[in-house]
Please model this.
Amino acid sequence: MSYSKETVKIAKEKLSDRRMSAIHYADLRREQLYKKIPRISEIESELSEIGAKVSLCILKGDRGSEEVAALSQRSLKLQEEENNLLYQHGSSPEALLPHFTCEKCCDTGYLEFEGKTVLCDCYKKLLTDTACEQLSAVSPLKLSTFEAFKLDKYSSYPDAQGKIPRDRMSKIFNYCRNYADSFSPNAKSILMRGATGLGKTHLSLAIANDLLKKGFSVVYVSAPDIIHKLEKEHFSGDYTGEEDSFKTLIDCDLLIVDDLGTEFKTPFSVSSMYNIFNTRILVDKPMIMNTNLSVSDLEETYSQRFVSRVMGSCDKLDFIGTDLRA
Ligand SMILES: [Zn+2]
Model:
């Protein structure tokens, strides 16, 4: 997968921050231990002197010499003494080492594999997450939570159709919570329908929030924004081809499209939406689509065939009540 320069830059910065902070905290622990157990400091400097001498011997080609054997012996003794001292003071040898987020690559992002340098899985994950974040309209910090969802704002009296909004919304709330709890990359898609201001965005962002915490990649976009971005990438004369929003929209574990049907309708917008949805349906990856349009309005914007294909692939949640923001 190709990533934009910006995505790679941000992911590299995050990786470097992880590494630097692991080293920084190891240095702090080391300083404290030197103060508490001064002998540790002496041992460490003798160990590094031994290391330098051994390297010199190896460079000179006398790897098997008596001197090297004596130095190695001394080094082992010192390490044993150091370990004992650390344990006696309620610490451990690990305290002197950096605690990297990824032990495989020590937060460098790269590994040696069969004589080649390859990307570590942790760096691949960071690149995907960063690409999703870059494409998403909101940063994860601003996401809504289930805890902040207020059911008591919905009326407990029947509406004109005899339906009680609070009961309906309580079912929808439980459905969404359960969806987030039991989410898998092949989960079902959801179509959230209903007027503006009834909590569709709030609940879809609450799902996103939970999934991001579990390590899934989530992209949250509004339909007009994503069409605008795809148009820019597609039609821009100086487009370098390095941005690949479409790929990120397909690759993420969950795609949330808000305000479906409010994008400016052009042949490009219709075919882009069709491509995104159809590709995700084909590879069995879930989406959450939010719309305040009726089925017939959606059919008018896209096509009957497209709408029935999308509708047939998802659970439908009909939000009712009065605009919570009013
Ligand atoms: Zn790694």
Observations:
- The first strand starts at residue 110 and ends at 113.
- Residues 5-36 form the longest helix (32 residues).
- Residues 216 and 253 are 6 Å apart (CA to CA).
- The pocket of zinc ion is lined by residues 102, 104-105, 120, 122-123 (CB under 6 Å).
